[in-house]
Amino acid sequence: MAEESKPVRKKSAGEEDLLTIGVSPHIRDSDTTARIMGWVIIALLPLTVYSIYIGGLSTLVVIVMSIAGAVATEAVIQRLRHIAVTVTDLSALLTGLLLALTLPPRLPFWMPFIGGAVAIALGKQVFGGLGHNIFNPALVGRAVLFVSWSRYMTTSWLVHPKAGVVNTAAVRSIDAVTKATPLYTMRLVRQHTLSLSASRYYKPLLFGNPWGCIGEVSALLILIGLAILLAKRLVDWRIPVCFVGTVVILSWTIGMDPLFAALSGSLLFGACFMATDYVTNPMTAWGKVIFAAGCGAITVLLRFYSNLPEGVMFAILFMNGMTPLIDRYVRPRPFGHGKRLSEA
Amino acid sequence: MQLVQSIRRLLDLRRGATPPANKDTASISIEPGPTPETVIIPLQQHVGSTCDPLVEVGDRVLMGQKIGDSEAYVSAPVHSSVSGEVTDIKEHPHPTGQDVLSVFIRSDGRDESSPDVRPPGDPMEMSPGDIRTRVREGGVVGLGGAVFPTHVKLSPPDNKPIELVIINGAECEPFLTGDHRLMVERSTDIVKGSLVIKRAVGAQKVIVAVEENKPDAVESMREAGREHGIEVAGLPSRYPQGAEKTLINSVTGREVPAGGLPMEVGVIVDNVGTAAAVHDVFYKGTPLVERVVTVSGDGVAKGANLRVRIGTTFADVMDFCGGLTGRRGKLIMGGPMMGLAQYTARVPVVKATTGILALRGETLFKDETAHFTCIRCGRCVKYCPMNLTPYILGSYSDAGMWTQLGDFYVDDCIECGCCAYVCPTKNPLVQLIKVGKEGVAHRRRKMEGLEEATSRKAQ
């Protein structure tokens, strides 16, 4: 085309600069992945701080090393995969924190680091990163530690002397009897090898639990965390409610104290923070109900009819595996489909 | 009702999103818009066939004179919004993105009315058929933005009796306030117009549906409708409350079957603007030559609700409102949730222009993900008013899996934008779904072609 035939395009009003085009919607909600992860971390903070207060330096080491392992692994693997390093979306940090809170308060310092690394590498990145994993990464990390070093993972659940606020005579006497976690004690009670009232455990479980994992230190603080998540509408209420509800009902039908069943072990923590992980639970409301009820049923099964000390972890992991199947078959009924027309 | 809503809110059972309303112009009265030197009137401003021009270059036309019409049933004529001379008839950019044959008319500034502009007599004495003819001649289309020819909507087949007319004053899109102002300022006209619509379809009842964030509109419509037995339904302010199917569901509890029309559940829905336009056709005699346009957004100097002549360019309207401010961002026809971003301000205001929204570059959202990424938060599923699974639609569309996409009801998507709005990873879900619908349709055509070819071969 000849030079001189090019028309000179005249600018008209409102056209001095180019306008941006794009498909609607032209506005977006301000929530981002990083902000959601940040809020979950905030919801976990009261629990984390209190557990460090109770558990001291050793607890802090576990938490820091677990987070370090998770974040470092995320960055290294993403660098190796030649993709953008997304540690700023806080999801690796959250995974590390969640893992730490499921670990005993005293471990060799390298163990939580390996746990964090495994959680990210094996639990998340091998599947393709955030959003693609089938199993909850933190629980994958915990499961690997649990089967690899089960001695550390179970017997270091010792009464910590600094659990002063709750280190009452009652607690000491229970502990003197069994040297075991409340849940294990109640299993002995159920097998009639011991007679003890479950209600003695309510107060320590709620306000300062000297047994168990870092994140099990106070049921009350877990519930406060859940309240934050629910108030920000970050998690669906169906999962914690149906999960704990199923455990309570089933425990009660087999003759356990229902409130004790709800408060003890890692149930509350698992139901509020692990089962609610976005990636690994179903997308639909009824799917979530099925998922949570399944988690609850398997938890009771493992708690009282297996050799495992607690069933929550494997229950959630098992139901994580069922999630794609649930999403395949439980779908919402699209508007205007399969419903008879209302009588006019 | 209040209790039920509270429980639904507590249990998180509601669908639809709650984008910030931004109804800054809600208290500004409707004012006359600019008087342009030249209007550019596209011959396609409705769903259906494009009109043929009835005038030639050099002709003198009068205000309200019909300048384009079509033989087709699903179509609506267009009229001149000024008096003056036809200077050109050529293709021109249209807000929907294509170039459309348009009539350029240079105004003589006198606004001389065509002799056709006179009231046709009392519509309440007319037969439904006559009402429909007059509505068509008046060029009335759905002014909520969908621009479906109103006379077609007013012609339900005999086996689908219409029992209820819903006048849509929900105006759920953020920023837009034109319908709100109409309900406050012209409630009597809306009532009269809706009574004509009611007569045309033989309905027993009229309900005006308004979102509860407009208490003055609810009050004003209730006042005006009382003596005619017209009810006002206050609906929760949740986007997309004003979408036809959602609205019918909210008001009557009925679900329009997928792929079907509201008449299948005995309802027709007309926008308050449409009702006012019907009023004008019968009581003033004026065809649809102007409409209320909300000008808003942070990229315009002064927000307003204007009565703008069809054919006025966006540039003229923006200049009238003090011009664009800040870095250039988006210039959108309609609201921010479903509006169409324009590439030029030379496009004219058409019957579908509910508003012109200017978003400045500094605050503009432009962080869509390049590829579909999902953290499976489930918000898109929770908020979808059509109960679809947008995350599946988005991922299948991104992967080009058209066969599977069809199985997930992609055709039922109303493209309201709730899913993309709430998505924390900022997936362009509506864009993916639009592409997906095209992909599914293309594949379907191809398969039908193949089947035809195979059956021909077999014979």
What best-fitting shape of chain A do the alpha-carbon axes yield? globular
Number of helices of chain A: 15
Low-pLDDT stretches of chain A are 1-11, 156-179, 340-344
Strand order of the largest sheet of chain B: 1-14-13-17-15-16
- Please report the two chains with the greatest interface, counting residues with C-beta closer than 8 angstroms to the partner's C-beta: A-B, 48 and 84 residues
What is the CATH architecture term of the largest domain in chain B?
Answer: 3-Layer(aba) Sandwich
Outline type of chain B: globular
Q: What share of residues of chain A is helical?
A: 55-70%
**Average pLDDT taken over every residue of chain B:** 93
Largest sheet geometry of chain B: 6 strands, mixed
Uncertain ranges of chain B: none
Mean pLDDT of chain A: 83
User: What CATH first level of the largest domain in chain B would be assigned?
Assistant: Alpha Beta
CATH topology of the largest domain in chain B: Rossmann fold
Q: Report the count of strand segments of chain A.
A: 0
Radius of gyration of chain A: 25 Å
In DSSP terms, counting alpha (H) and pi (I) runs of 4 or more, how many helices of chain B?
Answer: 14
Number of domains of chain B: 3
Q: Which class best fits the helix and strand makeup of chain A?
A: mainly alpha
Molecular structure report:
- Chain A is an all-alpha fold.
- Chain A has helices at residues 33-55, 57-80, 91-101, 110-123, 137-148, 150-155, 169-178, 182-190, 202-207, 219-231, 238-253, 258-263, 267-274, 285-305, 312-329.
- In chain B, β15 and β16 (340-342) form a beta hairpin.
- Chain B has a 6-stranded mixed β-sheet.
- Chain B has 3 domains: 2-25 and 118-284, Rossmann fold; 33-117 and 287-363, Roll (Ubiquitin-like (UB roll)); 379-458, no CATH class.
- At the A-B interface, α1 of A face α7, α9, β15, β16 and α13 of B.
Summary?
The complex is a heterodimer of chains A (344) and B (459). Chain A contains 15 helices and no strands. Chain A is an all-alpha fold and 344 residues long.
